[in-house]
Write a structure and sequence with these properties.
14 strands, 424 residues, 6-stranded parallel sheet, Rossmann fold, 42% helix, alpha/beta, 18% strand, 3 domains, 6-stranded mixed sheet
């Protein structure tokens, strides 16, 4: 009897010792087995359950982030060691395991069914009118495509004057919503985006038609200079007066590149043509655009290439009054004013924001890069010629487009010629 009691007590002692050990294994995952799908730096007003809801759609999944971070911190001291899940500090580096890993770590604590995927959240700054019929409206249409094609939640701020401090303030307002992506539509946002991106290191920023990069910043550029070059080449072939004009508003990088490319294309097909170019100072002042257009027409211009937004209507009035022609940009303007437009340098800038959002959604977005989209994608960049344009001109322009695509023609984006000044 004594032997049986002794044997029983030994068994019970072994079980008592084993249970805590097993519990310890469950409570502290092997740090070598934990994989961080994403690293996250704690921001103001963050807490673990809020992050669990953001990444997993379940506030109760916070312990997966807690356990994973503490596990990897054992071998990598760049990660935080969290003593209290209710207390995390700004700047701490956390380990965010994948949804599958989090479910495996939590076992029955997490819902058996995966939560509904968290929708992509995209915010856009549009420093103009969303119905300007040009560049700004194209950006807005791109945002709507993001909503429709990616089932994204979208927000935007528009009609911001192109002043650095105002653009930066609008970008901060959007970034404070903590979206997955902030798109700054237009190269005029480059400096502001570079500044604000540094203030929000965990928010992705993209500048459409920009040339800036950073640790969480990239630029997506529709190479509108390629379609502008083709427009210049066509203008050289079509002009009867041998005088061709160009009007734009503010001197931002995309506009300067487009002007230079147009001039290069014009020189290529018609070296003797006179080129009149004016940056009026406003993309939206129709009266000013009409004044500039009439001044160029009075100097002999029979074709004017416009890179304008709402101000284009003023140039159209000038063309109608004088029987001259216009080449537009961004969209096909022949459909709007067939008696005025003989060509349009298509640069579908809505594709830039959409492409950026698609890259974020698929995990292919890369910071520190400039993504260029040109004539190799005719849905994004091409020259639309009016049906009244002679077939031989169409064929020549198509051949030139192939030479740009192949690299045989290198489009110039530098202009060193004269500016056409308009008297007030």
């Amino acid at each position: 009897m004594l032997k049986q009691v002794t044997k029983f007590m030994v068994i019970m002692l072994v079980l008592v010792l084993l249970v805590p050990a097993a519990t310890a294994v469950l409570a502290a995952p092997d740090h070598q087995a934990v994989t961080c799908e994403e690293d996250y730096n704690v921001q103001a007003d963050d807490w673990l359950s809020k992050l669990a809801d953001k990444f997993y759609g379940d506030v109760l999944a916070y312990s997966a982030i807690f356990d994973a971070t503490n596990a990897v911190a054992q071998s990598d001291d760049t990660y935080a060691t969290i003593a209290n899940p209710d207390l995390i500090e700004v700047g701490w580096k956390l380990c965010i395991p994948s949804l599958d890993d989090a479910q495996a770590m939590l076992g029955n604590e997490m819902m058996a069914e995966s939560p509904a995927p968290v929708p992509l959240r995209v915010a856009m700054l549009i420093p103009g009118k969303i119905d300007d019929g040009g560049f700004m409206e194209a950006g807005y249409n791109g945002l709507l495509s993001i909503e429709q094609e990616l089932s994204a939640e979208i927000s935007y701020i528009d009609q911001i004057q192109p002043e650095p401090e105002l653009l930066a303030a609008a970008l901060r307002e959007l970034a404070q919503q903590n979206p997955d992506l902030v798109i700054a539509h237009g190269g005029q946002n480059s400096a502001a985006a570079a500044e604000v991106a540094q203030e929000f290191p965990n928010v992705r920023f993209v500048v459409v038609q920009g040339n800036v990069t950073g640790d969480n910043l990239s630029s997506y550029e529709i190479l509108q200079e390629q379609s502008a070059w083709l427009a210049g080449a066509a203008a050289g072939l079509l002009t009867e007066s041998n005088v061709v004009g160009h009007i734009s508003g503010i001197q931002v990088t995309p506009g300067l590149k487009g002007r230079a490319a147009f001039a290069h294309g014009l020189r290529t097909t018609n070296p003797e043509a006179r080129f009149l170019t004016t940056f009026s100072g406003s993309q939206d002042d129709a009266d000013l655009a009409k004044q500039v257009a009439l001044a160029q027409i009075n100097e002999g211009a029979d074709i004017i290439f416009t890179m304008l937004n709402a101000a284009r209507t003023g140039a159209i009035e000038a063309n109608k009054e004088t029987g001259t022609f216009q080449m537009g940009n961004v969209r096909d303007w022949y459909e709007v004013e067939p008696e005025v437009f003989i060509a349009s340098a298509l640069a579908n800038v809505s594709k830039a924001g959409l492409r950026a959002a698609q890259d974020v959604a698929s995990g292919n977005w890369q910071p520190g890069t400039i993504v260029k989209i040109g004539v190799e994608d005719p849905d994004a960049v091409s020259l639309a010629l009016a049906p009244t344009v002679p077939v031989e001109v169409v064929e020549q322009v198509n051949a030139l487009a192939e030479q740009i695509k192949s690299g045989e023609i290198e489009v110039s984006t530098e202009y060193e010629g004269e500016e056409f000044e308009v008297a007030p």
